# Entry
Amino acid sequence: MALDYFAPGVYVEEVDRGSRPIEGVSMSVAGFIGYTEEVRGDAELFKPIMITNFEQYLEYFGKPGSDGFTEYQKDDETYYPYLPFAVQGWFLNGGGRCWVTSIGTKLPGTDAPPAEETATPLMTAGGKPSLAFNLKADEEGGAIVQGDKRLLVVISESTPKASEDEEAEPPIDDGQYFKLQVALGETVLEEYENLSMNPEVEEEVADYVITALEESEYLDITDTSVSGQALSRRPANGPHEIAPPPYISPINNAARDIAGSRADKTGMQGMFEVDEVAMVAFPDLMLLFQAGILDIDQVHGVMEMMVSLCENSFPGPAYRMALIDPPPIKPGKGNDPVSPENQKPQDVDAWLTAFNRRSMFGAMYYPWIKVANPANSGRPVFVPPCGHMMGVWCRVDGSRGIFKAPANETPRGVLGLAYETNMREQELLNPKGINCIRNFANYNRGYLIWGARTLVDPTNIQWRYISVRRLMSYIEKSIEIGTQWVVFEPNDSGLWSRVTRTVTNFLEGLWRAGALQGDSPAASFYVKCDGELNTNETMMMGRLYVEVGVCPVRPAEFVIFRVSQWAPGG
# Structure
C-alpha cells in the first residue's frame, strides 16, 4: 500500500487478503536401486535418473535392442538381477514416474568379461554384423575416456580418394565408402575419410577401415562382417554410442557403493536427495545375499540404513517409506540363503525377530512372487515382491486415494507364489506386520494382497496401517510446502486467521474425499492458531504456532458379522 498521496486523484491498489490454497503433494513416486544390464544415454552410474515408462528404462539401462533383462554368472551359478523385474512390475501395476539408480552392470568381485562380449556392435543397413568397437584401456587397465559423456562413433557418407593423375579415370563410387568420426559430445577427437570394408581395396582408392584405425588413441576395432561385397558389409550411417567397460567393484566395496554419498548424490543416500521420492526399494539386495556377496548381517545393515533414512527427513517431516523384502533364509539352520519356495511362514517370522528393527516407515510383503523371465525364454522365476507392491500403492492412490489401504488388490504380472500361505499361517504373520500375498483360487478371486500393515512396534496401534502413515505424511508434507508464503509475514491475528482458513480448507477437502473420519468437518479435524498458542514471548522469538488435529480413516481389517436366530415377535 502506498504511504503518501500528493496529487488529487483516484488510486487503485491491489491488496492480498485471502488465504492461499494448499495443493496436495504427490506421494506416489518410487525410487529403485539395483544392478542393470547397461548404463547409457543420459544415465550415470550411481546417480538417480527419472523414468516414466519401461521403454525409457530400456533406453537408459538396457543394451541396444535388448529387453533389459540379463543374467550374471558367478562361481558357475546363474543369477538374474531383480531390478528390471521390480521396475517392470511397478509400471505394470499402475506406477507412474519413478527414479532408478544403477550401482553396476556386473556383480561385485566377478571376473571382467572378454572384450568380444562387451564390444559395441555396428550393424549394416540390413541389420547384419559389420564392425565392433571397444574402448582402449590405459596403462592401469581403465578406459581412456572417462566421465559422464559417452564416446560416439559417427558413420556418414564418403567417396573414393581423389586421384593425383588428373587424366586418369576416377574410380566408380558404388556407395561402399564411408567416413568415421570419433566424438566426445560436440568435440570430434578423430576423423577418418575414404574408408571401405574391403580388406583388399587399393590404397590409392580407399583405406580398409581396420588398417586405418590401427593407430586410433581411443578405439579397438574388429571386423565382424561375415561375407558379401564391401557395400553389403558397410556399417549403417548414424551415431553409435560406445559402451565403456563394465564397472566391477571389489566385493569389499559393495556396501560402500550401495550407501553412496549425499554430497555426490550417489547410491542409496543420493536417492534420498530426490525430494519427490516417497517410497524406496532395493530388490537386488536379495541378489547380493543369494550370490554370497553380502552376508545376512550386512543385509541387515543395508535395511537398517534404508529405514533410518526414511525416518530422518530434517528439516521437514518424515514422509518416505521403505519396502524391504524378506531374505530367503531359514533361521536356526544356518545363515545361508535357501530357495524362496523353501522359506515357510515360521521362517520369515523368525528372521524378522532376529532382524529386530521396527518402524512405522517400513513395510514388508511375503512370499516372493513368480513372474515370467524374458532372460530365460519366458520361463518363470521367483523375484522379491517390492516393485509390484509399490505399483499397487500408486494405483490405489490414483483410483481411490492415499487414505485407502493398498490391500484386497490384485497384483498384476504374478504367475504364482513361492509359498501359498493359509489363514492359520497368516494369523502368525499379520500381527507382526508381515503382509501376505494370498492365493484365493477357492473363491475364484486369484492372487490378492491380503495385508496393509507397517513394521511398527505391534503395541503402537495408531501407526499400524500403511494407509494411515502415508495419509499423515501426505497431510504434513502438503501443509509444509503449501504454507511457505507465511514465512516473514507480520505475525498478528490477521495472519493467524489466514493460516487457519488455508489449513481448514485443505483438510475439509480431504474430509469430503473420505480421508477423514466423522460426520462433519468439526468432528474430523481442528485447526488452532490463536493468542493462546502465540504469546508475546513466542512472537518475540519470531515463532508462529499452529496446532492441527485430524482423525484419519482406518481400514476395516477385520469384518465381523454377528449372526443369530431370530424369532419374529419373540
User: Anything to note?
Assistant: The mean pLDDT is 92.
